[in-house]
Amino acid sequence: MFKDKIRELFPVMTSVALRAVGAAVCFYLAACDVPVIGHVPPQAWAFIAAVQLAQVIEILARRDIIRRIGELATQLSALLLFVYVADHTGNPAFMAVSVLVFAYVVAGLFGHDPGSLTSRLLDRVFTNDSMRMPKGDLVFWRACLNIRDLGKAGAMYLEGKLKSQPGAAPLTPVDDETAPILPALIAANRAGFFTTGSQPGGMCQEWPRQAYVIGFADLRAMRALHELLTNEPRLAWRIRRTFEWWDRAAAGETIHFGVLRRGTVEGTYGDVCSEPAVVALVNGYQIVIEDPQSGRDDVLWPLLERFASLTSNPTRKG
């Protein structure tokens, strides 16, 4: 996993390093007014340096590295402070805190979310067996290796064959309001669209509500859904990668759900699912589909059923 992280970040950090060096050189030329390439005014070098820094910030923001670097810098500063105090006072409590902060720094360097690590530790210490997922369900979820396996497990949960699912309290049953759309959700999950949230349209008490579904898909399922969605102008939708900031497409009104960050995905599914399955979710496509028209419930779910039919019968069209 560490090699994959290095392979993923190497081209990004190389680009960042080259631009940072270029910005430093330009700032030096601007500050010293060195006569290079004729007489270029210092303002021009300062402008070029600012552009280089803006590109660095843009690259880092896309990869969500700025937040991680900020967290690591904060943790490292705290570590140095506690080590300094512990060294001068000999207080074992400060030494224990220093070890904890150091563990946070190491966890951050390897791409893990320290907050999720802490929550897992606290869960192990303070959560009793009745609050954890039943062993039979846990074994089944941990056997999943990819998004398609997770979708099959999700279908079994919707069918009542599994009593728990990741991201929800153990032994939480499917909501009664989901009953009318269960066939479409089960079919979509079995076809490779692992749904994690949904809501039927229609009326809720006296108020109309919008139908929506959110979930994860691999490349094959994403392409099948994308083809159907591009031909359905009545729906608003968004397809994104977990670790990127680009939209595959968006149509209709404003989408109400954002992309989940890597730390959130790992924290939600890391305790229950296998590492290959979590990696598949992190590298997979997050899909949000909404019906902008409140109260309508006959567009989204038939589309999911068509998706399931096309995915299970690739040669069939229409």
Give an account of the 3D structure:
The chain has 318 residues and is of the alpha+beta class. It is 57% helix and 10% strand. It has 2 domains: 2-125, no CATH class; 145-312, no CATH class. The chain has 12 helices and 6 strands. The strands form 2 sheets. It has a 4-stranded antiparallel beta sheet. Strands 2-3 form a two-stranded antiparallel sheet. A hairpin with a 2-residue loop joins strand 2 (202-204) and strand 3 (207-209). Helix 1 runs antiparallel to helix 2, helix 9 packs across helix 12 and helix 10 (262-269) runs antiparallel to helix 11. The two termini are 41 Å apart.
Biggest β-sheet, characterized?
A: 4 strands, antiparallel
Query: Distance between the terminal alpha carbons, to the nearest Å?
Result: 41 Å
- Total count of helical runs of at least 4 residues: 12
Q: What percent of the residues sit in helical stretches (DSSP H or I)? A: 55-70%
Mean pLDDT: 75
Task: List the topology elements.
Layout: H1 2-32, H2 42-62, H3 65-89, H4 92-109, H5 114-126, H6 135-142, H7 147-159, H8 182-190, E1 193-199, E2 202-204, E3 207-209, E4 212-217, H9 219-230, E5 236-241, H10 262-269, H11 275-283, E6 285-290, H12 300-312
Antiparallel strand pairs: 1-4, 2-3, 4-6, 5-6
Helix pairs in contact: 1-2, 3-4, 5-10, 7-8, 8-12, 9-12, 10-11
